[in-house]
Amino acid sequence: MSEREAPTWPDLLHALWRTAFAAGSTKVFAKELYLGLLELPHVRGVLGARIVPAGDVPVVRWADHDHGVLSGPAGLSADVRPWVAKSPELVTRDVGQAKISDLTVDEVAAFAPALAERMREVGGLAVVAASFRAAEGDRGLLLVTLDAAPRDGQIATALGQIADVVIAADDRIADQALLDTRLAADAVLAEVSLRLAGSLDVEETLRAVVRMAVPGLADGAAVHVQRDDRLVQIAAAHVDVRRERLLNEHLRHGRWAGVQESGDEIDAMESLLPADVGLELMTSAVLRARGRVLGVLTFFHRSGARRVPTREFVRDIAARAALAIDNATLYGQRRAEVEELQLHLLPSVLPDLPGVEIATGYNVAGHLLEVGGDFYGVVRQPDGFTALIGDVCGRGAAAAALTGLARHTVETILEEGGRAEDAVRLLNAKMLRNEVGKFLTLATITFGTAGPDGLPMHALTAGHPPPVIIRRDGGVEETTCRGQLVGVLDDLTFTPADHVLRPGDAVILFTDGLVEARDADGAFFGDTDLEPTLAALHDLPLPRMASTLVAGDGRYAVDDDAAVLLIRYRGDRALDTTLPADQAIEAALAAVRSLGRPVDRLTTSLEPGDVRVTVDGDAEWARVEFHRGEETWWEVL
Predict the structure, then answer these.
(1) Cβ–Cβ under 8 Å, residues 609 and 627
(2) Is pTM beyond 0.90 here?
(3) Positions in the chain whose pLDDT score sits under 70
(4) Beta bridge partners of 46
(5) Does residue 268 contact residue 260 with C-beta atoms inside 8 Å?
(6) What is the arrangement of strands in the sheet containing 220-227, beginning at the earlier edge strand?
(7) Closest C-alpha among 516, 577, 508 to residue 542
(8) Which stretches does DSSP call E strand in 543-621?
(9) What is the rounded (10 degree) CA torsion for 425, 429, 431, 435?
(10) Rounded to a whole number, what is the distance in angstroms from the first to the last CA of the chain?
């Protein structure tokens, strides 16, 4: 770029403000900042550092004309420490929010020789330094090396302006991090409430509480409960899996400060754990209900940790755990609350549609933030029905809110007879208009009216894995529909696909948590086993197929949220009644023959007693099912 075309400092500063305003980390605009300073007259090098209250320098960068911007070059952090130690003695003047110092490189050499040598290597003779506050009690440091003594104050002014940018960005980023931490804590509290309310096994629930707290809100955790007038350890977790065994061992042998039962004060104190565990601090909360001590929940933290749960959070989580221990008989009431919450994310009841069997499966991931963004639904329409499934990026409160927005927006439009394409486009526009900041994927299948050829279906995807058809003979076909993510582009384009389901054919919609499950060798299920597994399971009753898939079929681990929605077209129903077992088989044979299938016997044998028998199909395929309580026997002809 010629000198005439070079951007002016105001231009660079304006661009830096713009970048910093949207950045999620000061690292994002570091290169722009350093290269901008290098454009100023006589500037030969720029050093930036973040200094924690203890004086350590965890972040340091260097930039010069020959090497560009280097993050954490070897030895630079150590070179800066003498400057940090000397800085209280330096003469400074205020420029904006920064403290500015002017020194020669020779003066720097008197107390930081290695740093001075770096400056000399790039032709530096003088230094202008800016020190300013950063978030969480840290300090920011900028050293600009010049090949001539500063004269007009331009460099000091520029550093003061840069300090304003960094301080504003750092404060905003810190505020956002605090908000994210609070949201994470709220999500954990919500999930803890779900676990406590939805389980009669209190100890297993407390183990889950410990697992959810680490690593999102603490570096370690342990829970003790009262048994026979003594506290017994139930579970412990460590952010470092390799040290978890050590933590358990030290806790069991009493090599720590011990459970704190006196009073309800919740303050960090020394854990007294051996150094090999790496957890120097702890915060304890008494599990107390109706005046009785029921247990103690303890969070452990590394020294200097910044993610320490608030007193309110610790008190709240302790109160909920204590209530669950003391009131296990309230399980039914609390379970109703769980179901009410789930109603906002997943439909509690799916429609009963003639000739169609529907089943769902859902696996909740074992992560910190277990409120995920997978959802599904089935909507009746004037001329048929539409099945939908989606996946919101991310986890936690924001993902759950977008899940509710997406599902209810799309379902409302579909219920009014709108097309799936229009519903997805409207959702996309709403997300962009509201600046949601997240995206989601979505797949829909609209089913029309069954005719002689079968049940017509119109498949649509928006960045989502396409639905897969499972034919009645075990053949598996991936639909050819494609589309773009929702919430990213102004204009969405779709490539839908039309297919027909014959009686016995099924179609599966799923989220990527299913296909990204891994087997023991680390291979993705979707890459190796999806089609063979669906083919092998194709005759199962759909509820059993759904539960088998989300459980991993005994061969792969479904570690993420995974939703499955299965629809099977069963054709005409020839029989649906309850009969004694000895009459049910003969009635089923007669019903199969009425469909045009010549058959004289079934292989199914039934114990005496009443059973419900259903027969569906056509002249080429028939399905017989016998139901008694929770048991189902089936036969495909």
Answers:
(1) no
(2) no
(3) 1-7, 23-26, 181, 184-185, 188-189, 192-202, 216, 260-267, 304-309, 325-345, 348, 364-372, 395-397
(4) 63, 144
(5) no
(6) 230-238, 220-227, 292-301, 281-289, 269-270
(7) 508
(8) 556-557, 562-569, 572-580, 610-617
(9) 160
(10) 77
